[in-house]
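Agenda item 2: adenosine-5'-diphosphate complex prediction
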Amino acid sequence: MILIFLGPPGSGKGTQAKVLAEKFGVPHISLGDILRDEVKRATEIGKRAKDFMAAGRLVPDELTIELADKRISQADCRPGFIFDGFPRSAAQADALDGMFKQKNLTIDRVIYFNVSEEETVKRLLMRAGIEGRADDNAASIRTRFEVYEKTTRPLIEHYAKMGKLLEIDAARSIEAIGRDLAKI
Ligand code: ADP
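Presented output:
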């Protein structure tokens, strides 16, 4: 089972990916988590990624593509995986198509978490108070939305054309969305 979760920041992708990955017994691969770990360990990639992340901009494609490729090549990904926050640009989507072809993998579904900016900003500001993430401040949130609209949103069309897209109404409660996803 290979799933890709696509949607704006704060749409609840990460929360649902975690639950579903556990249910299917496959890894939940959050590029944001992988990058935050690189930053914490002050690796070369982490040092290069840090300022982009704090500003709410995309980390350069070559870094995320390399990290994603490495991660899905690990043995625990053989039964499948859920990608959360990858791909986020046309270059990443193309690289992913290439990787999958080479590894003989196919995407089962791309789940698009559809929710308004107004609702997600509310959630992100609330999370800022709880988790204290460096990029959950008003300026960075605004940039993340701009990046999403301009660079990530076009992927919806890309996957719709491939016949892979499944849209869910992500403005509802965690439980209601979880019930829909459990039917996959
Ligand atoms: P959110 O979806 O709320 O923005 P994430 O944890 O998914 O949170 O991502 C946090 C940050 O990590 C992004 O703003 C970006 O800087 C970086 N990032 C995550 N995934 C990618 C990606 N696929 N390509 C480039 N940068 C990424």
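Discussion summary: The mean pLDDT is 95.
Owner for follow-up: CH.
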